[in-house]
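Suppose a classmate hands you a notebook page containing two proteins, each written out with its sequence and a corresponding row of structure tokens. How would you begin to make sense of it? This section walks through that situation. The first entry is reproduced here exactly as it would appear on such a page.
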Amino acid sequence: MTDANWAGCVIPSDVLYDLEADVWVRFEGDEATIGMTDVAQTRCGRLVQVSWKKPGVHIKKGRPLAVIESSKWVGPFESPLSGDIISNNDWFEQDVAIANRDPYGAGWLVRIKPTNLELEKQTLVDSEVAFAHYKKVIDENNIRCFRCSQ
């Protein structure tokens, strides 16, 4: 499947999704890179600050990896998997709105080494399921995805 797009919101086909947490997961070897979905970054508005959990910390599924502050919202960025935090995206120190402009690329937030992957991966969905879900959310909430320029 190719990347899907609805109302400007992109749903890439090369990641899995935790629809409850509104996050994506890309597996690279035994690591997982995690970020906000396009719909999530649009709902939040321009990010202004991220307070991270430190690398080396063990995090359980559903617990916050970071606290995100945006122009519209302050709240937790929940982990879709249990694991050990490997790194946070240092790019945010220079450009916190990178997640608004490139949510599935340079705007990733956290990398972890999953510790309960076999069981927890079953709760993630592919892009086809995610697209059907987000299409409904987008239409019901009149969402139009955009990219912040700064």
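The notebook's second entry, a different protein, reads as follows.
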Amino acid sequence: MKRLEVKLHLPAVAPLLDVVKVTADSLGGGLAAPQRLDGLDDEFRSDWEAELVAAQNEDVRRLLALFGREFFGTGIIALDEANAEPVMRACAALRLRLRAGELAVLPDEALESGAVDVAGLAEPVQRAFMSYVFLATLQDLCLSHLGPAVLESDS
């Protein structure tokens, strides 16, 4: 099994994790990308959405678990074939929530390219943007180093 250990600089990451945790809490009982499917039975839609929310919450829980006591002792997170896919989904959900919230003031092109004058942003938007980039970097690490192994494990 492929495993990637990433050493992170605690003083830089800790404030970002605060934003990530608040964003995760804001997801609560809702989807990061709510679905509007017309024509579904209300009970079926409710059950289906509950399953999606439960899966999203589990993915976010697995991502946050990377940043537990061990992380704060070593500064290291471990990504592997077992957690790469849930981590990528959790990062996507959190990035969507950040994008719809604090980062709504920034154009999508700037968010995706990273072409943002961070110094010119208000402090809460700066932290949200840096958290957005941090989550994108985690996704990139999973795709770059574990993507083929994750895809092979599903076949």
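A careful reader of the second entry would note: The first strand starts at residue 3 and ends at 7.
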